[in-house]
Amino acid sequence: MSPERAILRDALGIAIASGAYAISFGAISTAAGVSLLQTCALSVLMFTGASQFALVGVIGAGGSVWAGAATAALLGSRNALYGVRLSTLLGVRGARRVAAAHFVIDETTAMAIARDDPRQSRYAFWATGFALFVFWNVGTLIGALATQAIPNPKVFGLDAAPPAAFLALLAPRLRSREPLAIALASAAAAIVLLPFVPAGVPLLVIAVLVALYGVMRRR
Amino acid sequence: MIWAGVLIASAACYGLKLAGLSLPESWLRDARLQRTVPLIPVALLAALVAIQTFSTGQHLVLDVRVVSLGVAIIAVALRAPFLVVVVAASATAALIRLI
Predict the structure, then answer these.
(1) Tens digits of per-residue pLDDT, B4-58?
(2) Which of left, alpha, beta for B57 (phi over 0: left; psi -120 to 50: alpha)?
């Protein structure tokens, strides 16, 4: 099999898997009270899963839209670091850079940096980006339409879906002791803060605390 | 209001992606920044798991979602795909309510 064929096959595999994940996004977003059009707009315009889940998660939990938007942006900060790794690899300028930026996410970065040859890196980035964008948006629409048809999402246990979704997004990031400790401390801090501040605000406090920890610690 | 949040948050997320591709590499190569930024999703996702499991609005609650989270942890430990984790957790809550 040629390298391009192999890349296409991997890209399609990733796109199908994330299409399934987008179905759960569409369902959770609609169950949170976000409209069908808003749900689809998020997948088209934001196109970064964890941030989308966070925004609708905060809204669904009764938090303000702005606390949700701030959390979404904070979760998107890691994409800036992916951009740094990709910028030399992709070598995109002008309009192509404006388009490429939309595709700078976990999956495209992983696919691009896994290749040794720069031409294959670029091919992997664009192939994964396009395939994922299509499946992500189709999946979102299916999930949202299906949930709209359900009169009471609680009957299907959809209120238990967001924690599971966040856990599944978190798990791959817990490969060593430090992130695990940070995860446990953050979960505990969230529970402690929750009764005292408006919904969504504990997340912003925790983001500030972890940023301070990261900047102040010595290594 | 939701529309404004959707559009502004989307613009912010796009701006971060574009900044990574556009800003001088030396700015973002800073060692402390490189160490700190990956910790933010870990902290926020863990906090979201806790909040969405143990609260309704501003109140701490213990309900079937705790059992669902337990099922989700088992599914994640078994390396189940994303959708399986979410469906297993939802189905658990639905079944318990049915009983």
Answers:
(1) 999 999 999 999 999 999 988 787 778 888 889 999 999 999 999 999 999 987 8
(2) left
Amino acid at position A167, single letter: L
Enumerate residues 176 to 215 of chain A having a beta carbon within 8 A of any beta carbon in chain B.
178-179, 182-191, 194-195, 198-199, 202-203, 206-207, 209-211, 213-215
Please tell me whether residue A207 adopts helix, strand or coil conformation. helix
Place of tokens 């809204």: A59
Domain boundary assignment for chain B: 1-36, 38-99
Could you state, in order of their start, the residue ranges of all structural domains in chain A? Answer: 3-173, 176-219
pLDDT tens, residue by residue, A152-172: 877 788 889 999 999 999 999
**CA A78/CA A21 separation, integer angstroms:** 20
Tokens of residue A179, six digits? 């992130």
How far is CA A84 from each of CA A42, A99, A190, rounded to the nearest angstrom?
24, 16, 31
Q: With the C-alpha atoms ordered A168, A173, A177, A182, is the resulting torsion angle positive or negative?
A: negative
Burial of A182 (0-12, 13-18, 19+ CB in 10 A): buried
Per the CB < 8 Å rule, is A57 touching B60?
A: no
Q: How far apart are CA B40 and CA A78, in angstroms?
A: 8
